[in-house]
Hints:
The structure holds 4 protein chains of 4 kinds.
Chain A: H1 2-21, H2 25-45, H3 49-71, H4 84-107, H5 121-133, H6 138-146, H7 148-168
Chain C: H1 4-22, H2 29-52, E1 56-60, E2 75-79, H3 80-103, H4 110-129, H5 133-151, H6 157-188, H7 193-201, H8 206-224, H9 233-239, H10 242-267, H11 273-295, H12 300-328, H13 332-367, H14 378-381, H15 383-396, H16 403-417, H17 421-447, H18 463-478, H19 485-500, H20 505-511
Helix pairs in contact in C: 1-2, 1-4, 2-3, 2-4, 3-4, 3-10, 3-13, 3-18, 3-19, 4-5, 4-10, 5-6, 5-10, 6-8, 6-9, 7-20, 8-10, 9-10, 9-12, 10-12, 10-13, 11-12, 11-17, 12-13, 12-17, 13-15, 13-16, 13-18, 13-19, 15-17, 15-18, 16-17
Chain D: H1 2-20, H2 24-46, H3 68-99
Helix pairs in contact in D: 1-2, 2-3
Amino acid sequence: MELAISIITGLMILGAIYAIHAKDLLSAVIACGIVGYGLVICFLLLKAPDLAIVQIVVDTITLIIMVAVVLNSSREEEYSGMDSQGTINAVLGLIITIVLFYFFYNAILNLDIFGKGALRMAKAYIEGAAEKTGSANLVTGVVFDFRGYDTLGEATVLVTAVLGVIAILRLKGKK
Amino acid sequence: MTVIVKKTTQIVAGMIFLYGAYVVIHGHLTPGGGFAGGVIMAGAFILVTLAFGSDFLNLKKEEAGSTATENISILMVILLSVIGLFIGAKIFFLNFLPKGTVGELVSAGVLPLYNIFVGIEVTSSIFIIFLALVIYKEEEST
Amino acid sequence: MNPVIPILVIVPLACAFLSMALGRFVRDLPKYFTAVVMLFLLIASFYSLINIGTGLSLYKVGGWEPVNKIPIGIYMVLDGYSAIMLCIISTIGFLSAVYSISYINRYTGEKYYYALFCLMVAGMNGVVLSGDLFNIFVFLEISVISSYALVAFGVEKNELEASFKYQVLGGIASFLILFGIGFIYWKTKTLNIADIKEAFKTGYDKTFYVFVQLLILSGFGLKAAIMPFHAWLPDAHSSAPSPISAMLSGVFIKAVGIYVIIRLFFNMFVISEEVAILITSLGTLSMVIGVFLAIGQWDIKRLLAYHSISQMGYVILAVGTGMILISRGQNRDIAALAITGGLFHLINHAAFKGLLFLNAGAIEYRLGTRNLKEMGGLSARMPVTSATSFIASMSISGLPPFNGFFSKLIIVIACVKARFYLLAVLAVIVSIVTLASFLKLQRYAFYNKAPDKENHNIKEVASPMLFSMITLGILCFLLSLLAFPSLRESILQPAVDILMDTDTYGLKIIGM
Amino acid sequence: MITYLLCFILFLVGLYGVITRRNLIKIAISLSIMEVSTFLFFALIGYIEGGRAPIVNPAEPNQVYVDPLPQALVLTAIVIGLATTSLLMAVIIRIYRKYKTFDIREIRNLRG
């Protein structure tokens, strides 16, 4: 299990690196989509079918939107070599990533090993959720009943984004 | 788009829509739920829009309709959550309907209702986002 | 359970959607409806401030009682600290909504503006009232996404560019916070802040702990624009419509940034000395560099935005000093004094920075420019704007008898008592530089001669805008009353007590 | 252990992209890569070896299930991610129409 997920994550990393470095924006966008589809397989392996269903459709829709944006504008990334600011950014980015990776590595040494985590808050969900909420799907039970307030927030976020998109895509801002 | 594409889309989009509705309604029994089903149903609408193009569909009208649907369904979600404040134990987000037996279609109290309204809301939201981008493109070019 | 707590979040949410649904039929409904709802929130939040006193009120959403002393639902917590923040949000929110009635009629798509405004307020109320880590993230996203859209509301080049920068940095911040939440869940297997506190008290791995604190600090620090993460703030706050600038600078960076940082580092993490020193030095850095960046600005709103960074530095400096003292186990009275100063300055900053941005908006509304060099001689033509702007400028520079003086005084006294003389000296110097910068603003905007003679038709702005500015001007006087011991003890002290109560806060909530 | 490290490397690739890229679309892509890694991280935390997908069958009690809570959190976060991405794309379209370029070096009105 761990091996399979590692391999898929490795492929996702390769896809991500390609997406960041590709000259053609369309292939970059599609590589980004592949990273998303890799996540779908990881979700399936990790026993999260709900997430897999949502992610595969959301990823497709994101891909459609991004491809539409790229096709309606320029496909080429104008990249006129490295200037001084670019070099500074690259060095800065490398330093930040290395430092963060070092910290992360040390921080997770003493935490639960993959697949061996204990349950604490979720124990009550698994033991009593079916009786408490009446829902056979525990994730739906958690999403809509135990943490229904979060879900209201989540639905609101989506509506907020819709309002934002409509507001930003007005043709004229001021009268 | 060609006639073949349009004809196929008609059939496929209907099936996708039905599958999304199934996922929404069985959200408390099988994997999926309001969000999963909602995005699937939105996918069906997007497919139709892509295949038939804006000449066939009156996009502005569709957008207005979707916005109204979205607002009403999110208001229904809020209403469902607030009902608990007025009846019984006076608790926000109370699951006030009888729970029923686990595994049956009509069970889990208000969860199926939440699923349905959130499903409608997600469908219309994602469809509006898509439409807004399409409409903007057309208005810009004219 | 107190039903006011969920109502404070639900009402603005419902207002946003109702005004979207009904705004189609009644054109002018959204603006008046929003103002009325904000007035209702103002009353409700002051009611809860008076009602809560020194107590602590808990709302278990969905009625889920803890199982084996582990909370399983989402908790909403109202205490003295969140009540103060609620009052700030609703006061500035109400005045901005009233101000918007005449300011926003220049823009198209008014109903989207008011819906997004309500959603932003709802998100901030949700963050402030939440007792659950992931819930904080969700409501933070509501308010942050609506602020992205509101910054770009003018859809001109500058607005879009500012919004893009803001979205990218805000996105990074969100993912850092999400990663931090994941780490905390991995270690403690719970999301409730009080429960996490209890889990952390039982001992922890040092490296893990520092890493999580850094993730959370940098995530919320990006939202609060503390110094190394400040790049988005001057652009975003100067490009937004003026009432939104007042909301963003006066309330938003506090509610989703400073408030959460203070809440989490006092009431969730066990305070450690290294992080306390880090927070204090970041605060000092923001305070000093912010003001020096501000002094060279000619765009009036950019100048104010840089001052926001600097003034937030004061708050973080004061709170950080308190954290250092607590972690060293030194005199808790001085720590309490420092935190009092910080909270007092937080309240004051909302009043005078909100007022300054509203003034800038009034000037921009009449002149159509934000460049100080193109202004001049406005004191005769816009007397109310000029007078209120003078009050706010003196207040932010820390001159008596305005409110800014007292909060800065408390911070400086606390620093001196804690023997951090360097910090005290820096605080005084920054205050003087602030005064210089605002004298420049006053002189160029209101007292210099106008650069040309075409400005004859400039007159005072409409009455809703005047109402907001005058009310905030009066508040700048009235808030200085909070420095008196009796008022301070009844309003500020409960909040400070909640924050200082690092030992039993978690137990209290779990036991309820 | 290695899965967590790879997941964090994915996050860092995204972060590196956001810091170094100069193209608006590339920045959006980098952000969505960071997003993906965060979701993966939550799913990894919730996994329990030998656990079943969290759907209760009343006929078979006493099963081991994976932790449903992180899955619920990711479900929330995915939708939030979709919202932020679409808003970002809307702003990018507007910027492209104003400037006719995706290059961030030419989109610099605001400085100082």
